[in-house]
Amino acid sequence: GQQLNQSPQSMFIQEGEDVSMNCTSSSIFNTWLWYKQDPGEGPVLLIALYKAGELTSNGRLTAQFGITRKDSFLNISASIPSDVGIYFCAGQPFSGSARQLTFGSGTQLTVLP
Amino acid sequence: GAVVSQHPSRVICKSGTSVKIECRSLDFQATTMFWYRQFPKQSLMLMATSNEGSKATYEQGVEKDKFLINHASLTLSTLTVTSAHPEDSSFYICSARAFSEQYFGPGTRLTVT
Question: From A37, B30, B59, B95, which residue has the greatest number of CB atoms within 10 Å?
Fold first, then answer.
């Protein structure tokens, strides 16, 4: 089945630094989504990408849909303490009636003051 | 954005009893809802896809007789964990699809004693 490799697994950064994380897939996806999950909460959608090569921003967050349709990255600029959490990428296949999401393993982000 | 609610947020039950978790899409109709399970420090694992008015589609390894799913309306899906055991203790999260994006509920923490 489809697999997503997300890296890094965890990051410790200083407040104000920029962050980059990425996901690669063994197969093509039609849509890439990036979520953030706080402890004890459900994932919250940050950015959705629909076209190969698409670059989309949401405040300090920027994400890109890789041109091969097999990868995506998320950048966070000027990190702040509330950026702490687990970030998941998720891919949605091109076909299939349900088009379930496949999730990456997550990146645990810690922001040090 | 689209809002998905879950109830209860936390539940503790005794081994052998059944527990029902509700998932509602509050401001949109969802023909398809998804149920996930998440263990500590792990990614989300899809359990089943819930389709309004029809039987749910379960992922491989998920017992359909143990995890009963009912999607009786376009805004409500329920997951019933029957004859719960301690190994069923986990964080259960539902999601609903609105257009091409999935929105998640806040999750339900189930503890079976």
Answer: B95
Chain B residues touching residue A1 (CB < 8 angstroms): none
Which residue among A41, A98, A104 places its CB closest to the CB of B107?
Answer: A41
State whether residue A67 is helix, strand or coil. Answer: coil
Containing H/E element for A56?
strand A55-58
Can you name the residues that pair with A12 across neighbouring β-strands?
A110
Q: What confidence tens digit (pLDDT) does each residue in B12-34 have?
A: 999 999 999 999 999 899 888 99
A89 neighbors A33 (Cβ within 8 angstroms) = yes
Q: Which two tokens mark A105?
A: 């393993």
What's the whole-number mean pLDDT along residues A2-19?
Answer: 92
CA A2/CA B76 separation, integer angstroms: 29
Mutate to test the interface with B, among A2, A92, A100, A105 (most CBs of B within 10 A): A100
- Is A81 strand, coil or helix? helix
The residue type found at B45 is: M
Q: What's the whole-number average pLDDT of chain B?
A: 93
Q: Tell me the HSE value of B34 on the side-chain side, using a 13 A CA sphere.
A: 21
A96 band by pLDDT with thresholds 50, 70 and 90: low
